[in-house]
Amino acid sequence: MALPLPPGLTPSEVGFLCEMEHVTVIPRQTLDGLELLGGPTGALKPPFPTPLPLWLALLLKKQRRANITPPPWLSVDALTQILDFETDERTAELFSPSPNLPPATTTAPLEGDPYLAHDSLELSAPFLKDAATARAQADALPYHWLEIGHLLITHAPDDFEDLDAVRKLLRDLREVRMSKLRKGFEVLDAGGGVKMNGVGGMEIAEVRGFVGGVVDGLRKLNRSREESRKERETEERENGFGSSSYRDDEDEDML
Amino acid sequence: MASYYCPTAILTDAQKAPTTFSLAVPALSHSPLNNNSGTPITPATTLDLPLWLAEMLAVSRPSGPASAPLATLDMPSALGPKVMNALTADATSVELRQQAQWFYGLGERMLELFEDEEMGAVLLNTFKKRALEIADKAQNTRTAQQGGDSGDFMSGLDETERQLFRAAHDGTHTVKRWFEATSRG
Protein backbone atom coordinates (compact mmCIF):
# COMPACT_ATOMS: atom_id res chain seq x y z
CA MET A 1 0.00 0.00 0.00
CA ALA A 2 1.19 3.51 -0.59
CA LEU A 3 2.54 5.03 2.58
CA PRO A 4 1.34 8.60 2.97
CA LEU A 5 4.20 9.62 5.24
CA PRO A 6 6.89 11.73 3.59
CA PRO A 7 10.33 10.19 3.15
CA GLY A 8 12.82 11.11 5.85
CA LEU A 9 12.22 12.29 9.39
CA THR A 10 9.38 14.64 10.24
CA PRO A 11 9.97 17.51 12.67
CA SER A 12 8.14 15.70 15.48
CA GLU A 13 10.36 12.66 14.99
CA VAL A 14 13.48 14.81 15.14
CA GLY A 15 12.11 16.37 18.31
CA PHE A 16 11.61 12.95 19.79
CA LEU A 17 15.07 11.72 18.85
CA CYS A 18 16.78 14.70 20.44
CA GLU A 19 15.72 13.42 23.84
CA MET A 20 18.40 10.76 23.56
CA GLU A 21 21.11 13.37 23.99
CA HIS A 22 22.89 13.44 27.33
CA VAL A 23 22.67 16.46 29.61
CA THR A 24 24.33 17.15 32.93
CA VAL A 25 22.00 16.79 35.87
CA ILE A 26 22.50 17.88 39.49
CA PRO A 27 20.47 15.45 41.57
CA ARG A 28 18.57 16.47 44.67
CA GLN A 29 17.84 12.92 45.78
CA THR A 30 19.88 9.76 45.62
CA LEU A 31 18.98 7.25 43.01
CA ASP A 32 20.68 4.03 42.04
CA GLY A 33 22.10 3.63 38.60
CA LEU A 34 19.50 2.42 36.11
CA GLU A 35 20.02 -0.28 33.54
CA LEU A 36 18.56 1.38 30.51
CA LEU A 37 18.42 -0.21 27.08
CA GLY A 38 20.94 2.29 25.79
CA GLY A 39 23.38 1.48 28.56
CA PRO A 40 23.69 1.89 32.30
CA THR A 41 23.23 5.30 33.90
CA GLY A 42 25.52 6.45 36.66
CA ALA A 43 24.14 6.41 40.20
CA LEU A 44 22.78 9.75 41.38
CA LYS A 45 24.48 11.04 44.51
CA PRO A 46 23.71 14.64 45.32
CA PRO A 47 25.32 17.05 44.81
CA PHE A 48 27.57 15.46 42.19
CA PRO A 49 26.62 16.29 38.58
CA THR A 50 25.91 13.23 36.44
CA PRO A 51 25.17 12.88 32.75
CA LEU A 52 21.74 11.48 31.95
CA PRO A 53 19.63 11.17 28.80
CA LEU A 54 17.46 14.22 28.25
CA TRP A 55 14.15 12.38 28.57
CA LEU A 56 15.12 11.04 31.98
CA ALA A 57 16.45 14.42 33.04
CA LEU A 58 13.18 16.10 32.10
CA LEU A 59 11.23 13.48 33.99
CA LEU A 60 13.28 13.93 37.14
CA LYS A 61 13.03 17.67 36.81
CA LYS A 62 9.26 17.48 36.64
CA GLN A 63 9.29 15.38 39.79
CA ARG A 64 11.58 17.95 41.39
CA ARG A 65 14.27 15.37 42.04
CA ALA A 66 16.98 17.04 40.00
CA ASN A 67 18.14 20.23 38.35
CA ILE A 68 19.48 20.40 34.82
CA THR A 69 22.64 22.34 34.05
CA PRO A 70 22.33 24.18 30.78
CA PRO A 71 25.19 23.26 28.43
CA PRO A 72 27.88 25.90 27.89
CA TRP A 73 26.61 26.88 24.45
CA LEU A 74 23.17 27.66 25.87
CA SER A 75 24.27 30.74 27.79
CA VAL A 76 23.79 34.38 26.94
CA ASP A 77 27.49 34.94 26.17
CA ALA A 78 27.90 31.88 23.97
CA LEU A 79 24.69 32.47 22.06
CA THR A 80 25.53 36.14 21.54
CA GLN A 81 28.91 35.19 20.16
CA ILE A 82 27.37 32.66 17.79
CA LEU A 83 24.69 35.12 16.73
CA ASP A 84 27.37 37.70 15.93
CA PHE A 85 29.12 35.13 13.78
CA GLU A 86 25.92 34.33 11.92
CA THR A 87 24.91 37.91 11.28
CA ASP A 88 28.36 39.03 10.20
CA GLU A 89 28.20 39.82 6.52
CA ARG A 90 31.42 38.01 5.81
CA THR A 91 29.80 34.73 6.78
CA ALA A 92 26.60 35.24 4.87
CA GLU A 93 27.12 31.99 3.01
CA LEU A 94 28.01 29.85 6.00
CA PHE A 95 26.39 28.57 9.11
CA SER A 96 28.16 28.63 12.42
CA PRO A 97 30.30 25.52 12.68
CA SER A 98 29.18 22.40 14.46
CA PRO A 99 31.22 20.96 17.30
CA ASN A 100 34.45 19.23 16.35
CA LEU A 101 33.81 15.64 15.46
CA PRO A 102 35.76 12.92 17.25
CA PRO A 103 38.31 11.14 15.04
CA ALA A 104 37.07 7.92 13.51
CA THR A 105 37.64 5.00 15.86
CA THR A 106 39.23 2.53 13.54
CA THR A 107 42.32 1.39 11.77
CA ALA A 108 41.57 2.27 8.21
CA PRO A 109 42.75 0.11 5.33
CA LEU A 110 43.28 3.24 3.27
CA GLU A 111 44.92 6.33 4.65
CA GLY A 112 42.37 8.83 5.75
CA ASP A 113 39.39 6.86 4.48
CA PRO A 114 37.69 5.22 7.42
CA TYR A 115 34.45 4.39 5.70
CA LEU A 116 35.72 1.25 4.06
CA ALA A 117 36.86 -0.54 7.18
CA HIS A 118 34.51 -3.14 8.59
CA ASP A 119 35.02 -2.04 12.13
CA SER A 120 34.92 1.70 11.55
CA LEU A 121 32.39 3.53 13.64
CA GLU A 122 31.33 6.98 12.55
CA LEU A 123 29.34 8.47 15.39
CA SER A 124 26.65 10.98 14.66
CA ALA A 125 24.09 12.84 16.75
CA PRO A 126 22.56 11.87 19.11
CA PHE A 127 25.43 9.56 19.97
CA LEU A 128 28.20 12.16 19.87
CA LYS A 129 29.65 12.49 23.31
CA ASP A 130 29.06 15.66 25.27
CA ALA A 131 26.91 17.53 22.78
CA ALA A 132 24.78 19.03 25.54
CA THR A 133 26.50 18.13 28.79
CA ALA A 134 28.52 20.50 30.93
CA ARG A 135 31.58 19.56 28.91
CA ALA A 136 30.09 20.59 25.56
CA GLN A 137 31.93 22.91 23.24
CA ALA A 138 30.87 26.46 24.04
CA ASP A 139 31.27 28.07 20.65
CA ALA A 140 29.43 25.59 18.46
CA LEU A 141 25.80 24.64 18.09
CA PRO A 142 25.32 20.87 18.19
CA TYR A 143 22.97 19.11 15.81
CA HIS A 144 19.93 19.27 18.07
CA TRP A 145 20.54 22.75 19.40
CA LEU A 146 17.09 24.10 18.66
CA GLU A 147 15.17 21.20 20.15
CA ILE A 148 17.33 20.87 23.26
CA GLY A 149 17.35 24.61 23.79
CA HIS A 150 13.59 24.80 23.54
CA LEU A 151 12.96 21.84 25.84
CA LEU A 152 15.32 23.13 28.51
CA ILE A 153 13.84 26.60 28.43
CA THR A 154 10.32 25.24 28.72
CA HIS A 155 10.83 22.65 31.40
CA ALA A 156 13.80 23.94 33.41
CA PRO A 157 13.37 27.72 33.42
CA ASP A 158 14.72 28.16 36.93
CA ASP A 159 18.07 26.63 35.99
CA PHE A 160 18.89 29.55 33.69
CA GLU A 161 20.32 32.84 34.85
CA ASP A 162 18.72 35.04 32.21
CA LEU A 163 15.84 33.10 30.71
CA ASP A 164 14.32 35.86 28.59
CA ALA A 165 17.63 36.77 27.00
CA VAL A 166 18.33 33.14 26.15
CA ARG A 167 14.87 32.73 24.67
CA LYS A 168 15.26 35.84 22.57
CA LEU A 169 18.69 34.80 21.38
CA LEU A 170 17.45 31.37 20.40
CA ARG A 171 14.64 32.89 18.42
CA ASP A 172 16.97 35.31 16.65
CA LEU A 173 19.42 32.57 15.83
CA ARG A 174 16.66 30.45 14.39
CA GLU A 175 15.47 33.28 12.15
CA VAL A 176 18.91 34.15 10.86
CA ARG A 177 19.70 30.55 9.99
CA MET A 178 16.35 29.88 8.36
CA SER A 179 16.77 32.92 6.16
CA LYS A 180 20.23 31.67 5.16
CA LEU A 181 18.74 28.30 4.29
CA ARG A 182 16.05 29.93 2.21
CA LYS A 183 18.63 31.93 0.31
CA GLY A 184 20.27 28.64 -0.50
CA PHE A 185 17.11 27.65 -2.38
CA GLU A 186 18.14 29.89 -5.21
CA VAL A 187 21.06 27.69 -6.21
CA LEU A 188 19.08 24.46 -6.19
CA ASP A 189 19.69 22.63 -9.42
CA ALA A 190 19.08 19.19 -10.84
CA GLY A 191 22.59 18.04 -10.14
CA GLY A 192 23.76 20.63 -7.67
CA GLY A 193 24.36 20.70 -3.94
CA VAL A 194 24.10 23.35 -1.26
CA LYS A 195 26.78 23.74 1.38
CA MET A 196 25.00 23.23 4.67
CA ASN A 197 27.74 22.44 7.18
CA GLY A 198 26.49 23.20 10.63
CA VAL A 199 22.75 23.06 9.98
CA GLY A 200 20.68 21.58 12.79
CA GLY A 201 18.23 18.69 12.76
CA MET A 202 15.03 20.67 13.15
CA GLU A 203 16.07 23.15 10.48
CA ILE A 204 16.64 20.36 7.99
CA ALA A 205 13.33 18.73 8.91
CA GLU A 206 11.53 21.96 8.17
CA VAL A 207 12.82 22.32 4.63
CA ARG A 208 13.21 18.65 3.77
CA GLY A 209 9.83 18.30 2.07
CA PHE A 210 10.18 21.40 -0.04
CA VAL A 211 13.81 20.97 -1.08
CA GLY A 212 13.26 17.30 -1.85
CA GLY A 213 10.30 18.17 -4.03
CA VAL A 214 12.16 20.87 -5.94
CA VAL A 215 15.23 18.76 -6.62
CA ASP A 216 13.05 15.85 -7.70
CA GLY A 217 11.08 18.04 -10.09
CA LEU A 218 14.26 19.45 -11.57
CA ARG A 219 15.69 15.98 -11.95
CA LYS A 220 12.62 14.83 -13.90
CA LEU A 221 12.73 17.79 -16.24
CA ASN A 222 16.41 17.29 -16.77
CA ARG A 223 16.13 13.61 -17.45
CA SER A 224 16.02 13.69 -21.23
CA ARG A 225 18.88 16.19 -21.35
CA GLU A 226 20.87 14.02 -18.97
CA GLU A 227 20.28 10.91 -21.04
CA SER A 228 21.26 12.51 -24.33
CA ARG A 229 24.37 13.95 -22.70
CA LYS A 230 25.35 10.50 -21.43
CA GLU A 231 24.83 8.99 -24.87
CA ARG A 232 26.96 11.67 -26.40
CA GLU A 233 29.70 11.06 -23.86
CA THR A 234 29.82 7.31 -24.43
CA GLU A 235 29.92 7.91 -28.18
CA GLU A 236 32.76 10.36 -27.87
CA ARG A 237 34.69 8.01 -25.69
CA GLU A 238 34.31 5.16 -28.16
CA ASN A 239 35.14 7.34 -31.14
CA GLY A 240 38.13 8.79 -29.34
CA PHE A 241 39.70 5.36 -28.89
CA GLY A 242 38.98 4.22 -32.38
CA SER A 243 39.95 7.21 -34.46
CA SER A 244 43.39 7.27 -35.99
CA SER A 245 43.83 11.05 -35.94
CA TYR A 246 44.35 10.79 -32.18
CA ARG A 247 47.37 8.59 -32.68
CA ASP A 248 48.85 10.77 -35.39
CA ASP A 249 48.91 13.76 -33.09
CA GLU A 250 50.83 11.77 -30.55
CA ASP A 251 53.48 10.72 -33.04
CA GLU A 252 54.00 14.29 -34.11
CA ASP A 253 54.45 15.35 -30.52
CA MET A 254 57.28 12.92 -30.08
CA LEU A 255 59.27 14.55 -32.85
CA MET B 1 9.17 5.50 -16.67
CA ALA B 2 6.47 6.43 -14.18
CA SER B 3 4.96 3.57 -12.29
CA TYR B 4 1.84 1.92 -13.65
CA TYR B 5 -0.26 2.58 -10.58
CA CYS B 6 0.88 6.09 -9.83
CA PRO B 7 -2.12 8.45 -10.09
CA THR B 8 0.14 11.34 -11.05
CA ALA B 9 1.47 9.43 -14.02
CA ILE B 10 -2.02 8.32 -15.07
CA LEU B 11 -3.39 11.85 -14.95
CA THR B 12 -0.36 13.26 -16.72
CA ASP B 13 -0.67 10.80 -19.54
CA ALA B 14 -4.36 11.57 -19.87
CA GLN B 15 -3.57 15.08 -21.04
CA LYS B 16 -4.18 15.71 -24.70
CA ALA B 17 -1.84 16.40 -27.58
CA PRO B 18 -2.74 17.12 -31.21
CA THR B 19 -2.24 14.09 -33.42
CA THR B 20 -2.51 13.99 -37.19
CA PHE B 21 -3.57 10.67 -38.61
CA SER B 22 -1.79 9.48 -41.71
CA LEU B 23 -4.40 6.93 -42.64
CA ALA B 24 -8.16 6.67 -42.53
CA VAL B 25 -9.75 5.07 -39.50
CA PRO B 26 -13.47 4.91 -40.34
CA ALA B 27 -14.33 2.64 -37.43
CA LEU B 28 -13.46 5.27 -34.86
CA SER B 29 -15.68 8.03 -36.27
CA HIS B 30 -18.26 7.64 -33.54
CA SER B 31 -15.85 7.17 -30.65
CA PRO B 32 -15.43 9.65 -27.82
CA LEU B 33 -11.97 10.36 -29.25
CA ASN B 34 -13.68 12.07 -32.11
CA ASN B 35 -16.10 13.83 -29.76
CA ASN B 36 -18.72 11.38 -30.96
CA SER B 37 -19.20 13.60 -33.96
CA GLY B 38 -19.34 10.96 -36.63
CA THR B 39 -17.09 12.87 -39.03
CA PRO B 40 -14.88 10.34 -40.72
CA ILE B 41 -11.23 10.19 -39.74
CA THR B 42 -9.24 10.58 -42.95
CA PRO B 43 -5.52 11.10 -43.44
CA ALA B 44 -4.61 14.59 -42.27
CA THR B 45 -7.40 14.75 -39.68
CA THR B 46 -5.99 16.29 -36.52
CA LEU B 47 -7.52 15.24 -33.22
CA ASP B 48 -6.59 15.84 -29.61
CA LEU B 49 -5.72 12.44 -28.29
CA PRO B 50 -4.52 11.53 -24.79
CA LEU B 51 -0.75 11.20 -24.58
CA TRP B 52 -0.64 7.49 -23.90
CA LEU B 53 -2.61 6.79 -27.07
CA ALA B 54 -0.92 9.43 -29.20
CA GLU B 55 2.54 8.25 -28.25
CA MET B 56 1.79 4.66 -29.18
CA LEU B 57 0.37 5.69 -32.53
CA ALA B 58 3.26 7.98 -33.32
CA VAL B 59 5.97 5.54 -32.30
CA SER B 60 4.62 2.34 -33.77
CA ARG B 61 5.64 1.33 -37.24
CA PRO B 62 3.37 -1.27 -38.81
CA SER B 63 5.18 -3.78 -40.90
CA GLY B 64 4.26 -3.58 -44.56
CA PRO B 65 5.07 -1.63 -47.67
CA ALA B 66 4.20 1.76 -46.16
CA SER B 67 6.15 1.64 -42.92
CA ALA B 68 5.40 5.18 -41.86
CA PRO B 69 3.97 5.55 -38.37
CA LEU B 70 0.23 5.61 -37.99
CA ALA B 71 0.09 9.22 -36.84
CA THR B 72 2.33 12.17 -36.23
CA LEU B 73 2.43 13.93 -32.90
CA ASP B 74 2.64 17.70 -32.55
CA MET B 75 3.56 19.75 -29.57
CA PRO B 76 0.46 20.55 -27.51
CA SER B 77 -0.49 24.21 -27.36
CA ALA B 78 0.42 24.30 -23.66
CA LEU B 79 4.06 23.98 -24.70
CA GLY B 80 3.80 26.01 -27.85
CA PRO B 81 5.93 29.03 -28.79
CA LYS B 82 3.52 31.57 -27.29
CA VAL B 83 3.68 29.96 -23.86
CA MET B 84 7.45 29.48 -24.11
CA ASN B 85 7.93 33.16 -24.88
CA ALA B 86 5.69 34.16 -22.01
CA LEU B 87 7.68 31.92 -19.68
CA THR B 88 11.01 33.34 -20.80
CA ALA B 89 9.69 36.83 -20.25
CA ASP B 90 8.16 36.36 -16.80
CA ALA B 91 7.91 32.85 -15.45
CA THR B 92 5.90 33.64 -12.36
CA SER B 93 3.04 35.45 -14.05
CA VAL B 94 1.99 32.67 -16.41
CA GLU B 95 -1.01 30.66 -15.25
CA LEU B 96 0.30 27.15 -15.76
CA ARG B 97 -2.87 25.57 -14.49
CA GLN B 98 -4.79 27.11 -17.39
CA GLN B 99 -2.39 25.59 -19.87
CA ALA B 100 -2.33 22.11 -18.42
CA GLN B 101 -3.13 20.80 -14.98
CA TRP B 102 0.03 18.69 -14.94
CA PHE B 103 2.19 21.10 -16.85
CA TYR B 104 5.63 19.86 -15.89
CA GLY B 105 4.60 16.24 -16.37
CA LEU B 106 3.43 17.11 -19.85
CA GLY B 107 6.71 18.90 -20.52
CA GLU B 108 8.68 15.91 -19.30
CA ARG B 109 6.83 13.54 -21.63
CA MET B 110 7.25 15.80 -24.62
CA LEU B 111 10.95 16.21 -23.85
CA GLU B 112 11.27 12.43 -23.93
CA LEU B 113 9.73 12.30 -27.38
CA PHE B 114 11.13 15.41 -28.98
CA GLU B 115 14.52 16.34 -27.51
CA ASP B 116 13.99 20.07 -27.67
CA GLU B 117 16.94 21.55 -25.79
CA GLU B 118 15.56 25.04 -25.70
CA MET B 119 12.22 23.99 -24.31
CA GLY B 120 14.02 21.95 -21.68
CA ALA B 121 16.06 24.95 -20.61
CA VAL B 122 13.00 27.19 -20.46
CA LEU B 123 11.08 24.65 -18.38
CA LEU B 124 13.96 24.22 -15.93
CA ASN B 125 14.30 27.95 -15.50
CA THR B 126 10.56 28.38 -15.02
CA PHE B 127 10.47 25.65 -12.42
CA LYS B 128 13.28 27.21 -10.42
CA LYS B 129 11.83 30.71 -10.48
CA ARG B 130 8.35 29.59 -9.55
CA ALA B 131 9.73 27.34 -6.80
CA LEU B 132 11.31 30.40 -5.20
CA GLU B 133 7.98 32.23 -5.36
CA ILE B 134 6.25 29.25 -3.80
CA ALA B 135 8.77 29.17 -0.95
CA ASP B 136 8.09 32.85 -0.29
CA LYS B 137 4.35 32.45 -0.32
CA ALA B 138 4.43 29.35 1.90
CA GLN B 139 6.34 31.27 4.50
CA ASN B 140 4.27 34.41 4.42
CA THR B 141 0.72 33.15 4.64
CA ARG B 142 1.22 33.39 8.35
CA THR B 143 1.53 37.15 8.34
CA ALA B 144 0.01 38.63 5.17
CA GLN B 145 -3.21 36.68 5.01
CA GLN B 146 -4.44 36.60 1.44
CA GLY B 147 -3.49 39.54 -0.73
CA GLY B 148 -5.50 39.91 -3.90
CA ASP B 149 -2.61 39.38 -6.28
CA SER B 150 -1.20 36.43 -4.39
CA GLY B 151 -4.49 34.69 -5.11
CA ASP B 152 -3.77 34.86 -8.84
CA PHE B 153 -0.38 33.23 -8.55
CA MET B 154 -1.71 30.50 -6.30
CA SER B 155 -4.58 29.65 -8.61
CA GLY B 156 -2.19 29.47 -11.56
CA LEU B 157 -0.02 26.74 -10.02
CA ASP B 158 -0.11 23.31 -11.60
CA GLU B 159 -0.42 20.15 -9.52
CA THR B 160 3.28 19.56 -8.87
CA GLU B 161 3.66 23.14 -7.68
CA ARG B 162 0.68 22.77 -5.40
CA GLN B 163 2.31 19.74 -3.79
CA LEU B 164 5.51 21.75 -3.37
CA PHE B 165 3.59 24.52 -1.67
CA ARG B 166 1.90 22.06 0.63
CA ALA B 167 5.27 20.50 1.51
CA ALA B 168 6.82 23.85 2.31
CA HIS B 169 3.84 24.96 4.34
CA ASP B 170 3.63 21.65 6.18
CA GLY B 171 7.27 21.83 7.20
CA THR B 172 6.92 25.18 8.92
CA HIS B 173 3.56 24.25 10.36
CA THR B 174 4.75 20.95 11.87
CA VAL B 175 7.72 22.62 13.50
CA LYS B 176 5.46 25.26 15.02
CA ARG B 177 3.09 22.58 16.29
CA TRP B 178 5.99 20.67 17.85
CA PHE B 179 7.11 23.77 19.68
CA GLU B 180 3.62 24.33 21.02
CA ALA B 181 3.13 20.69 21.97
CA THR B 182 6.36 20.52 23.94
CA SER B 183 5.63 23.82 25.64
CA ARG B 184 2.50 22.36 27.10
CA GLY B 185 3.97 19.08 28.34
TrEMBL record, chain A:
Domain DNA replication complex GINS protein PSF2 N-terminal: 10-68
Keywords, ordered alphabetically: Chromosome partition, DNA replication, Nucleus
Record's GO cellular component terms: GINS complex
GO biological process, one term: chromosome segregation
Subcellular location: Nucleus
InterPro entries: GINS_A, GINS_bundle-like_dom_sf, GINS_Psf2, PSF2_N
Region (Disordered): 222-255
Positions with biased composition (Basic and acidic residues): 222-239
Main location (coarse class): nucleus
Family that this chain belongs to: Belongs to the GINS2/PSF2 family.
Function: The GINS complex plays an essential role in the initiation of DNA replication. Has a role in chromosome segregation.
Listed name of the protein: DNA replication complex GINS protein PSF2
Organism expressing this protein natively: Friedmanniomyces endolithicus
Encoding gene, per UniProt annotation: PSF2_2
UniProtKB/TrEMBL annotation, chain B:
Residues of the GINS subunit domain: 80-179
GO cellular component, one term: GINS complex
Main location: nucleus
InterPro entries linked to this entry: GINS_A, GINS_bundle-like_dom_sf, GINS_Psf3, GINS_Psf3_sf, PSF3_N
Keyword hit for Chaperone: no
Domain DNA replication complex GINS protein PSF3 N-terminal: residue ranges: 9-59
CDD domains, alphabetized: GINS_A_psf3
Gene Ontology process terms (BP): mitotic DNA replication initiation
Keyword Cell inner membrane: no
Keyword vocabulary terms for this entry: DNA replication, Nucleus
Cellular location(s): Nucleus
Family in the record: Belongs to the GINS3/PSF3 family.
Descriptive protein name: DNA replication complex GINS protein PSF3
Source species: Friedmanniomyces endolithicus
